[in-house]
Amino acid sequence: ETGVTQSPTHLIKTRGQQVTLRCSSQSGHNTVSWYQQALGQGPQFIFQYYREEENGRGNFPPRFSGLQFPNYSSELNVNALELDDSALYLCASRLQGRYGYTFGSGTRLTVV
Amino acid sequence: GESVGLHLPTLSVQEGDNSIINCAYSNSASDYFIWYKQESGKGPQFIIDIRSNMDKRQGQRVTVLLNKTVKHLSLQIAATQPGDSAVYFCAEVLNTGNQFYFGTGTSLTVIP
Question: Which residue out of B45, B52, B64, B98 would a mutagenesis test of the A interface target, given it has the greatest number of A Cβ atoms within 10 Å?
Fold first, then answer.
């Protein structure tokens, strides 16, 4: 039990569609980040949220966006899906000022 | 994104032997480094971390060494056990924790 829950676990979408992935962070963790992990690769940092504001972003286009809510939940939204967006999407949370993220088990997104 | 790479993509060791997993990073301004373990179907799990002002840190059966001169990080696992079989990632933290970069990963297989 990691304390970080992601839903759904698996998802299939069509190219051009939009998708929303959800994460419930560990209670008290006010910082959440999202990662994209392609098969056989390390997780790639998408962005980080602290107190409902984005405060860090990796090399991802604006069609990747997020929201963080006061109840420690968050969302990753991806518009205009492309085939290369197929990956495992990981959510992780931590206390601000601490670097040890706790990860969820991820959502496996397949774009066809 | 930043370049965090691993020297060896795969490593096989005999049960009971020590394992050493290496990682090279590119940004001398990195604040912090973390090693994660990822088992199949799960999110990354925190193992050990080290601040950039340290050169060694020990945990239970694990030691992380940091050589800032050559931008090199290593994870040593003592008395490797079958349960240690997983993919290991080093991660580089920048910008006071607001940017987070993983390497490609090393797959460790422990032979009973």
Answer: B98
